[in-house]
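[09:14] KT: can someone run the structure on this one? pasting the chain below
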Amino acid sequence: MKLEELTSWLGSNENWDYQLDDEGVLIKNARFETLTHCAFEAIENNTLETITGACAQGRDVDHITRVTGYFSRTSGWNKGKAGELKDRHRVTV
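[09:31] RB: done, structure tokens below
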């Protein structure tokens, strides 16, 4: 990918910010609170999906829970339901 494509995409998305330096681009992801340095060579040799995926640094995890016999992704829950999940008491047997 080209540097211009990456900086244009980063600049048009509210969760992303970037800063150029002599060796590459420092990419800030507000959603995952990460800072990732990407060298110019890495930008040329990778796709946007690969670069943005690396910027999540393993924090882009979708949790699944089982409630009353069926499975549900917690990423689609509203704030109240997500709060209930955090308040649940977990024990090991």
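[09:33] KT: thanks! Strands lie at 16-20, 24-29, 34-39, 64-67, 70-73.
[09:34] RB: yep, looked fine to me
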